[in-house]
# Entry
Amino acid sequence: MVTDLSDNPAAPMATAIHIRDLCFAYHTKPALHDVTLDIPTRQITAFIGPSGCGKSTLLRCFNRINDRIPGAHLTAGSIHIHGIEINRPDIDLQELRRRVGMVFQKYNPFKKSIYENVVFSPRLGGIRKRAALDELAETALRSAALWDEVKDRLHTSALALSGGQQQRLCIARAIANQPDILLMDEPCAALDPTATLKIEELLHQLKKHYTIVIVTHNMAQATRCADLTAFMYLGKLIESGPTLQIFTTPNNPQTLAYISGSFG
Amino acid sequence: MPPEESPSPQNQHCFQRRGFSYDRAIKYFFASNAGLTIVILLLIIVFLLKEGLGFFPGYRRELEIYRIAGLEFVDISRRNLTAHEQLSSVLNRAYFAEINGQCARELKRTREASAVFNSFSDQTSATRDLIVNNQNSGLDPNSEMLAALRKNHAIQKEKALTSLPATPHLTAAEREQLLASIRTRDATATDDPPLVTTLAQQYAAAQQQCAKPLAELRTVIDSFEAAGADLSTLVTEMTDAVTSTKEALQNADLLEQNRKSLLAAAANAKDPTERRKLLADAHASLAEKPDIEGPMRALMRRQPDCSATHTALRHACADILARLPPSLSQSDANRLLRAANKATPLLLDSLGQAPQQITQWRHDKPVPLSDAIRSFLTGKDWVTGGAWQDFYGILPLLIGSLMISFVALCLAIPAGVGAAIYINQFASPTEQSVVKPVIEFIAAIPSVVLGFIGILIFGTVLRDLSQLDALAWVPGFPIEERLNMFTAGCLLALMSIPTIFSLAEDALNNVPSAYAEASDALGASRIQTSFRVIIPAAFSGILAAVLLGLGRVIGETMVVLLVAGNRIKIPDFSAGLGSFFQPSHTLTGIIAQELGEVPLGSVHYRALFVVGILLFGIVLGINVTAHKFVSRTPN
Amino acid sequence: MLNPQSLIRKGLPKGHFKDRLVRVLLGATTYFIVLIAALLFAKIIKDGAPVLFTSQAPYVDLGFLLDKNQTLHVFDDAQGVRHQLPASAYNDYLKQHEGAPIYNPQTFSYSGGGIVGPIVGTALLTIGSMILALFFGVCAAIYLSEYAKQNPFIHAVRLAILNLAGIPSIVFGLFGFAVFVLAVPVITSTPSDRSLLTLPLFIGDYMLSFQGWNSSLMAGCATLACMILPVIITASEESLRAVPQGFRDASLAMGATRWQTIRKCVLPFSLPGILTSSLLAITRVAGETAPIMFTAAVAAKDDLPWESLAHPFDLLSSQVQALPYHIYTLAARIPASEYTRRAQYGSVFVFLILVMALSLGSMVLRAKLRAKLKW
# Structure
């Protein structure tokens, strides 16, 4: 089953991530089966599904952060990002991860100052000039709607910020690299509703510049933010399409059961 | 816990607790066991202070006697005399270093030849002595037994010939000649092999040859040595006088103490006759006040004489030392000459100030308690059990402890932290399962075994290594003493590596994995993640590991007692980095070495407890700081 | 994306050589430590094993393990044959060959015979101090893990444990000397002169005299127990805390008292852990020299501790030889020569084997325990 999300008539779009017959396993335990999906650029795509359905695993394949887990490996299929197969052996992993930013479920700023957190990856990229770094930091923090809140205390510890601010700092840190794609693994799971709202507003701003893929267990969040939604269950992609269609007229009975709260 | 008390005591509900329960008793029993730790800590502090604090008054009295008996007065002159003697010894060493440096080749050759012959003699001497003894005791020279002995000797000779030391500076032909002369040598021969004699003669000739241009230097040194004779005589004369005054004072103190304890016993005695007897004893023990004024007047009469001698010596020294050559040809000799040049103004200064000190000195100036404390904390001498005067200055011990710890940490920090980073960040699981137990095994080696290894194996290996020509550029090489601070530091490093390693590895392990994940997701490479995220995050934990390692090193006893060389002297820092290769004593070592030999309750005994208090304080401070750092690590 | 091709790297990854260099440097450091340790063990095994093991059955030189320590006499007889005999055998030899001349006699203290005295002494010291430390340590740990709430007392106890753990062993030696050797109370009819305080007991002539236990097995055990107490408490508390809270809740919910809960539901499960970690504490106790130098150890002793005692309790108040102190004596007080090597390397080898066996045992048991106990 090939689902092309870009079928959406409202906006004919290029494909950012092109997934074909993806199978993935931890040691011998399979986690993903034959996932085939196209994710369009400059849109928010949400993955929904019950716990353990493989939505996080799929997300973590896009920047190959799964490589960190011993025994995790691709068993079949391919992922192309802007036409490049990212599982080929000569891929520059560091470059890939800089192009495909990621924000984690639990906000995890380093135990450094706010400024040092934001300029961490530009520094790794070899930028040394203070002025350039300052500018990058300001741009990133402004994009993450955090600049006004922290501009007076850039050099204080990042861990003194509130949870929502820390998560936005993590977003700023990810976009300081000027990536193309932003992966978000349940970014609001550890936050209170007010902070969640702020992040959701931010997502709408960010989608003008970035392709965003977000994993969420919160269906309301998916309906609020996402342009497109993919429902996964037991490691399989069950159904995907424009958010409105998935939540109003799902084609698959399992999808219907899930969104109506029968399980999950 | 039982439920809350009900408000009214009359209303006995079935949940209500009655009286003192069995369960509470058990709780208090366990609590008292936990309290035992506090009791032990308090006991340690109380008893260290109880035994140690009596030191300062006792030491003050000793210093007082030192002053009123006039020993201090004599020491003004004696110090200058010692400085003068040291300077002449340095000059002499420079002179011989110059000569030996110039005929280094001859020196090495004669040494190597003698070493070969001595090694041979050592290995065969026992049988040789037997043969000589037997012949001298008038036995028939052809008896069966003598033959057996000779056969034995021949076997031993062959064996010895295979294990003689190397002779890199002798030609192959010369060595062959030497071995041949040994091989054909009669068991009872007493003369040296011809080559040994020849080489010794060559060396002597070379020495004479080199000494000729240095004749001027020789006269300078000789006249310098001779200039000190007057002062030396003066000091010897005064020493006898003041020593007897000191003894009289000390005896009076002992009698007084005895009297006090007798009086105390009398006050406690119940039996009236016994009490009378004790009181009588106490009166008998009343010391007559020793005459100190008489000897003191005699001593004071020497004041002008003393001043004059110092002034004369100063002029003589200034004249003589101005005639020293500006430099010598050998680097060793030059170093010593520079040291002498540095010491010269100090000596002249000290000699110049002496007359003033001598006239200003007063035997009745009081000795406050603060003097005793200052003398302990900043004293440069730890002299005990001597006939002259005991000094309890902590500096030589403290410096020894600190220098050894410095060496140990310089080696252990890179090794321990480096290994922790490698094992935690880069090693495969197999490597981890090999390295970790090995390091745990090192931690289990008892310190006395490490000391044993140092004294029997490592010290010798290090000394042999230092004598290689290829390593002569290392400062301090070749080392003079087998047991020195560096040797001790190496072994202590081995001892503290497990502590530093396992605590630092824990600290690295405790860094949340989210940090590494975030760093990876931002495109950092493996070493960037390690060095820019994980190690900085674990930094305070690693610092704590290093501090706890330092605490362990400073508090370690057996290794330093066995290996540090136990010379109580502030190292000669003029040797630069080479000063680490000098022997020294330590805070811990001095307690272990001397506590078994001192009389209970003496000032010396109490001094050791004060050293213990100091050690306790230092280590406690280090540990408290370390635990502050530990509590700062994330999670 | 601006240039997707930039994802494909050309040649080796960036920083490849730096990465390699760092790995090699750190790895070399690590394996250097391992190498040093291996060399050290190899040297001691090479020189020590021939002392203990022989080529004929029973393959172990039992004499070295079971004989008393004696002075070694080395001499030549008239035939030029060199003899090395411990003192007792030397006296026999003199009796047998009366009047025969002896040449080049040399004596080496502590180098003859075997090391049964030090082995037994160390065993007694270890057992005594571990009994004391385990009893008080486990009780204290039970209080800390089962009863303690946040209060100043607990805070003080934790501080005391932390500080005790860091005190240098020589300071424990000083403490043991000042307290157990010179100050603890004994019941006696004839108090010594240096008694700090005597209290009449009103039973016969007996008095409670604070005069200490002298240098004795008792004093040594007490000193070592104080030294190891913080280690035992920390390890025991860890084992007790490893028992899941649910066990306690279930027991309490069924109406058991605290003590019953601890006795039936906590202690049995934590006991293996406590014993395993106390094995490690034993290696430390057995290896320490500084605390027993002034409180219990003696360099030379003719009898085994239990021999020639007037009363069995005198065992506790007699001095003992100890293996670490014996090694200290062998290393520091006698010159190294070919005749002392047997005693020196043999003793160190035996000691190291004992300590390593204990340490290995603790490691293996801990690994087994971790594998077994997964609540």
About this structure: The first strand of chain A starts at residue 15 and ends at 26. Residues 16-259 of chain A form a domain with the Rossmann fold fold (CATH 3.40.50.300). Chain A has one domain: 16-259.
